[in-house]
Amino acid sequence: AIPLLEQAVNQANTIRLMTNQARRLVMLGEAYLLAGRLDDSKTCSQQALELSSGHNERGQQAYAFWLLGQIASRREPPQVEEAEEHYRQAISIANQLGMRPLLVAGGDKELRNLFFIHVCANGKIPRRSERSEHQVHALLLDKFMGLLDRRSRI
Questions:
Q1: Can you give the pTM of this predicted structure?
Q2: Alpha carbon of 19 to those of 12, 40, 70, 90, 101: distances in Å?
Q3: Which one of 16, 41, 52, 82 has the fewest CB atoms closer than 10 angstroms to its CB?
Q4: Dist CA 144 CA 49 (whole Å)
Q5: What is the torsion angle, in degrees rounded to the nearest 10, for the CA atoms of residue 26, residue 48, residue 56 and residue 19?
Q6: How many Å apart are CA 26 and CA 47, to the nearest integer?
């Protein structure tokens, strides 16, 4: 998939087709991320963010921030504060635009994961008996941030 996505991005640049180019860059960045190519993924997401900001494509900005959060959270060690800031920006834009798919598929789960990392000393996974407490705290964080609607149960 990566060669095809790279070709699509390059061809669009060649013919100056900027419509949906930020989205293509985010998709390529996601592919790089899945392949473990974090630096390439970051380059794509930063380009997508710059392009979407210049063209006032707020939805694509949200996806670019989400991808930057993914990258930061997968670094060794995880860049928790950086990831959290990117996720917050993505969620803020997504909330403004009513982008439910981003909120459900990405942001809330990633913030729970980050909170879990925060709670765990030095990023170590707690013993099985401790996990449920941390998961409850993560769900409370979701509730506090307004990511779960009022009918959701904790």
A1: 0.71
A2: 9, 22, 25, 21, 21
A3: 16
A4: 28
A5: -70
A6: 9
Residue 112: which of 135, 130, 81, 85 has the closest Cα? 135
Token pair listed for 12: 């669009």
Q: Which one-letter DSSP state was computed for residue 56?
A: T
Whole-number Cα distances in Å, 55 to 6, 19, 51: 21, 9, 6
Q: How many residues would you count in the chain?
A: 154
Residue 86 near residue 64 (C-beta atoms within 8 A): no
> 90 near 62, Cβ under 8 Å?
yes
Residue 125 identity (one-letter amino acid): I
pLDDT digits (tens, 9 = 90+) for 108-152: 555 555 555 554 434 444 454 554 544 544 554 554 455 444 334
User: Which tens digit of pLDDT belongs to each residue from 29-71?
Assistant: 999 999 999 999 999 999 999 999 999 999 999 999 999 988 9
Cβ(108)–Cβ(142) below 8 Å: yes
